[in-house]
Amino acid sequence: MIAADSTFRLDANVVDYLIVVAYFAVVLGIGLLARRQVSSSIDFFLSGRSLPAWVTGLAFVAANLGAVEIMGMSANGAQYGMATAHYFWVGAVPAMLFLGVVMMPFYYGSGVRSVPEFMRKRFGTGAHLVNAVSFAIAQLLIAGINLFLLATIVNRLLGWPLWVSLVVAAIIVLSYTALGGLSAAIYNEVLQFFVIVAALVPLTTIALHKVGGWDGLRERIQPGPEQLSSWPGTDLTGIDNPFWSVVGIVFGLGFVLSFGYWTTNFVEVQRAMAADSISAARRTPIIGAFPKMFIPFVVIIPGMIAAIIVPELAALKGGDAVEGVTYNDAILLLMRDLLPNGMLGIAIAGLLASFMAGMAANISAFNTVFSYDLWQQYVVKDREDDYYTLVGRLATVAATVIAIGTAFIASNYSNLMDYLQTLFGFFNAPLFATFILGMFWKRMTPTAGWTGLVSGTLAAVAVAVLSQDALGGLSLGVLPFSGQGASFAAAGAAFVVDIAVSVAVTTVTVPKPEKQLVGLVYSLTPKESLTDPDQSTMPWYQSPTKLAGIALVIVVIFNVIF
């Protein structure tokens, strides 16, 4: 795409542009203010571990409320219907609760600065290097997704060539991330959360009214009302057998992909690590789980409605080829058709906010892992603290430039969820297997750590290559999996192979001494070190386990109703 197609051109006026400009001014202002608080590398990379739980909790969910949530999930809603809610109610909330209740005490209590550093303490440099390198590559690829969609909005709003839009969008994100580090990213993510909600709630309300409410949606949705039910989700998985479709959702998405992403992905865990206490760190993902479970109502439902009332998408879903139109365009086309000026400006700012939040989260996590886990550990050791802060800023610039290149990779996918879930299968699923086995099995050895990671990743790549269209032209089509079903299968293979190889290698290699595993393995860690000393005197709304219990009940109810 060179210039904006008139099909997508949003009829914005001066009021809309002023709203967007004002938003950007606030974003850059936050970056400048956060710059004043950066006096050490811990300030730059982890906000000095000084933020309250409500800030880190909102940042936790906003960091994930990027291109995937807005464009990807609305695209899934338009194509597959309510089954897309599995990415939230099965594929996110349970793992977020597990992270807060079980795993954050180990991350925060061990004093590590990143997830790969935890891997180094538990397994040594082999697993650490594999994890750090694979994580860094993944963040560059995922940042490209967010940047591509951010540039697409600028392209279609202003009519600029896509490459110009990419550069401008990248400079905006780079400016505040390089200035203020994680604090700038987190405070902007909190702002972006409210801007996104202010954009999506009115759009959803107007769309529901336009289609005739829930009853109208039920009557008009194609191919039929079964798209209003999330189970068994055969269209989403590409698995015709309802039983195996449910198995794929529960095991592939709900267990391997979900727990692999939410419990070991440093993009998310970094927000909790910035909290001011172990209790606040534990509550961070749990607080984030509450808005997370309601996001489907303002992302998936608008996508479903767009496939009914937007002519181009209705034709596409009916099987007709529509030049230049994909399901990824659902939210944009809905905005084009429904929103008046003024409200359109808020919606545009909301979309820009979501993509900036996602990209900034990827970049801030990348610069931490690159600086601490790769540069400081393996390239230049024992330098002064200011040196590593400078390395982090330079890594931020480099990552942003590389993301411009990976954005063009993302542009080749008509449904970005297929691409993203494939990446998660490669990088997150084997990491979760190694992590969970090492945390609960003290016998697991350092050699098993890195060999399991490598084997699991290769297994996921093999399944993707053998599936149908999982890797575009690189897929051979031997296995009967396609789309997101292929990513579920790849993740499952990665998990099983990783566990099998890790167990086999452990039986013939030497484990670490138990005294070196205190604080890293569940059975060897004193329980009192996993909670705040005054935890018992805190009110119920500050208790991680009570909050997690409430959230779990609500999400079970949603799964039953839908």
From TrEMBL:
Q: Which GO terms describe its cellular component?
A: plasma membrane
**GO function terms (MF aspect):** D-glucose:sodium symporter activity
Tell me which PROSITE patterns the record gives: NA_SOLUT_SYMP_1, NA_SOLUT_SYMP_3
Q: Which UniProt keywords apply?
A: Membrane, Transmembrane, Transmembrane helix
Would you identify the family this protein belongs to, as annotated? Belongs to the sodium:solute symporter (SSF) (TC 2.A.21) family.
Q: Which Pfam families match?
A: SSF (PF00474)
Tagged with keyword Hydrolase: no
- Protein name in the entry: Na+/galactose cotransporter
TM segment ranges:
14-34, 54-75, 87-108, 129-154, 160-179, 191-209, 243-264, 285-310, 343-366, 387-410, 422-441, 448-466, 486-510
| Topological relation to the membrane, as annotated | Multi-pass membrane protein
Could you list the residue ranges forming a coiled coil in this record? Answer: none
What subcellular locations does the record give?
Membrane
Which superkingdom heads the taxonomic lineage of this protein's source? Bacteria
